[in-house]
Amino acid sequence: MVMENSTTPATPATDKAQQPAAEPVVTLTPAACQAIKEAMAAQKLTHLRVGVVPGGCSGFNYDLELVNDTKAGDLVFNQDGVNVVVDPMSAQYLKGVSIDFVTGLQGSGFKFNNPNARSTCGCGSSFSA
Question: Which DSSP helix (H) or strand (E) runs through 100?
Answer without folding.
Answer: strand 97-104
